[in-house]
Amino acid sequence: MKNESIRPGDSFETLVNEYENKLFRTAVATLGNIEEAEDIIQETFIKLYERTEPFENKEHEKAWLLRVTINLCKNKLRSSWLRKRVPLLDIYPSETKEEYELLEEVMSLPVKYRTVIHLYYYEGYQTKEIAQLLGQKESTIRSLMLRARQKLKIVLEESNEYQLRKEHNNETI
Amino acid sequence: MKPSNPLDPYNKYIDSFHVNRTLHEKLVHIPYEIKQTQEKRSLIKRGYKPILTVATCCLLFLMLNYIRPLLPSSNKDSAMSPPKEEQNSLKPSENASTNLDTENVSVPPTTYQLYLTTQKQPNWEEDGTRVTLTTITENPKYSTLLPTKLLRELTTKTVVQYGNANDSNYVITLDKKDQNIVRLTLLPMTQNEHALIVSPNDIPAYSLKGVTVTKQSADTLLLPIFNRDEFSPDIITSRAYYDNNDTSTVSYSFGITDGDFVIIYEITDMTPDEIYNLLNN
Hints:
The complex is a heterodimer.
Chain A: H1 12-31, H2 34-50, H3 58-78, H4 80-83, H5 97-107, H6 111-122, H7 127-134, H8 138-172
Helix pairs in contact in A: 1-2, 1-3, 1-6, 2-3, 5-8, 6-8, 7-8
Chain B: H1 8-15, H2 21-28, H3 30-70, H4 76-79, E1 112-115, E2 123-126, E3 131-134, E4 143-146, H5 148-155, E5 159-162, E6 172-174, E7 184-185, E8 197-198, E9 206-208, E10 211-213, E11 251-257, E12 262-268, H6 272-280
Parallel strand pairs in B: 8-12
Antiparallel strand pairs in B: 1-4, 2-3, 5-6, 7-8, 9-10, 11-12
C-alpha cells in the first residue's frame, strides 16, 4: 500500500472499518446532511490514503481524521448553496417531545457551536483537546461551549425537569 | 459515552447514523480507484506522445509535399541559383580590354546559370595548378546564362597561365585537355566591374535574360544578346573593341555595363565599325 501513514499491520480497510462511522457521524453532526456527509467521508479517506507522513500514535491518527473531516465540512458549508439549507434535518427520531426539542435545538445551532458540542459531549474530548483539534485557543473553545450551553439551557432544563419528574413518578409507583 | 450526559438524546441520535454498505465499499476501494485513475492518466500521457509524434510527422509531410509548392517563391532567381562553386566571378580592373581567342571550341550544349556580380570581391584560390573563381551572388537580377559547366570544367583543369591578381591586366588562360581550347580572359575593369570573356566560336544554344540564342554563324551569334528589348541603350554605357593585333584572326569584343557588371562578348570577323553599327541599330 502506498500510504506510509498507515500503521504497520493495518490495512486501509481496517482503518475504514475503524473510523468510517465515527467520521460519518461527525460529518452529519456538522453538516446536518447525510449525502454531503458521505462525500466528506470519501474525501477524508482519500486524504488519508494520500498522506505520506506516519502518525505518532492512535490518538494522533484519530485527531487528524476528525480535524480533516471537520475542515472539509467547514469548506463545504462555505458554499452559499449549502449555507441556505436550513433546517438541517426535518424529522428527528425521538421518543419524547423533550428529546425532539433537544435534538432540534442542537442541530439548529450554528456550526461552530455544534462542532464543539459534538466533540465534547459525543466524542468526549476536553476543551483543551478540542482547541488542539480545531486549531483554536482553549479560551475560544470555552467561550463557544458557554454560549452553546446557554442556547441549550432552556431545552436542557426542561429536559432535566422532565427527567426528574419521570424519576419521581417511578419512585412513587 | 458519559452516563450522566445531558445530551444523551443527541448522542443516541448521532449513534443511529451508520455508513451504508455502498459507501463502505467505496471507502474500502479508494486505494484501488486511485491506482486505476493514475494508470489511466499515465496511459493517456503515453498515448498522447505517439499521437503527437504522428501528427507532427503528418504536418511536416503536408508542409513538404503540398503546402510548400503552393507558397509563392520568395526569389525566383535565387531558386535557380547554382551551387557556389559555379558562381564564378572575375577580377575587377580598370580598362576594358580583351584577349581574344579565335580558335574553335566545342562547347557542350549544356547551359548553367552564371551570376556575375561586383558586390563582393571574388575569391581566388590558387594552388599552382588551378584557379578557382568563386563569388557570392548578391544581385541575381544581373544574371546571365552562360555555359558555366564548361567554365567549371576548365577551372578544375590545368592552368596554363595565370597572372597576378594585383596586375592591372589580369589574364587567365585555361586550357582544356582535349583539342578544343578555350581562353577565359579576365579583363581589367573598374572596381565596380567584372568582366568575363568566353570566346568560343561556336557557342551552343543558350539563353540570356530570357532571350534564346540559337547556334548561329559567328557574325550573327551575338545579335540576339544585344536585342534592344533586353539590353536597352541606357545600360550599354560603354563599349570597347579592339584589334588584338592578330591580323589573321581579327576579333573584337565589347562590353555592356549597367554599373554593376560588364559582360564582354567577343565578336569575330567583324570590324569595329560593324560592331558599332550593330550596337547602334
